Amino acid sequence: MRVLVVDDQLITRAGLHQLLTGEGHQVVGVLEHPDEVAPAVAALRPDAVILDLVMPPDFSDEGVQVALALRREHAGLGILVLSEHAIPECAERLLKGGEKGTGYLLKERIMVPPQLSRALRHLADGGTVMEPELIGDLMKARGRDKRLAALSASEREVLRLLAEGLTDRGIAERLHVSKNTVSTHVSHVFDKLDLPRSSLDNRRVRAILTYLQH
Length: 214
Hints:
Elements: E1 2-6, H1 10-22, E2 26-31, H2 37-44, E3 48-52, H3 62-73, E4 78-83, H4 88-97, E5 102-106, H5 107-110, H6 115-124, E6 129-130, H7 132-141, H8 146-149, H9 153-163, H10 168-175, H11 179-192, H12 203-213
Parallel strand pairs: 1-2, 1-3, 3-4, 4-5, 5-6
Helix pairs in contact: 3-4, 4-12, 7-9, 9-11, 9-12, 10-11
Pfam families: GerE, Response_reg
Protein name: Response regulator transcription factor
GO biological process, one term: regulation of DNA-templated transcription
């Protein structure tokens, strides 16, 4: 994949560049400041952009702001925001602003090959990748929601793995069950969360949004 890296830390930029090229990707650009991103994406046409969450000028949530702006202009672009810490508010804003092809992971997670490549491929396919640590905390904190409370332990585990970006086959391998079993759990999750049946809706993403918002 053609990837644009944006991070104000030299060590992180160098590490991501080495990791990406080592896994067969082409790094089309390495930027330090969020103001450089929009023109670079327009000129270089990457398949995906990796953004640090905290960057100049305010060192707060610049990565989220840039991600949301990119999503409005480039619907098919894979966007991965990396952070030192899992921040629920930032994850929720990312998903609300444009779920498909958007991800939020801790930096420590993607530094282990081939986690980064898996995440990028899933985003390029229009999927969503979310930090497992964050998803687990959010599910516990929002466990009082009636729809979430209706999920069985197996269904909750499947929902957590969906948030990690795993396919049905990937979940089946992780849980050591059949793909049909996973498909049944996923269907039950959708039904219990009362998600509308529509070809225009990404029901998997809406399932994640349900417990982030409630």
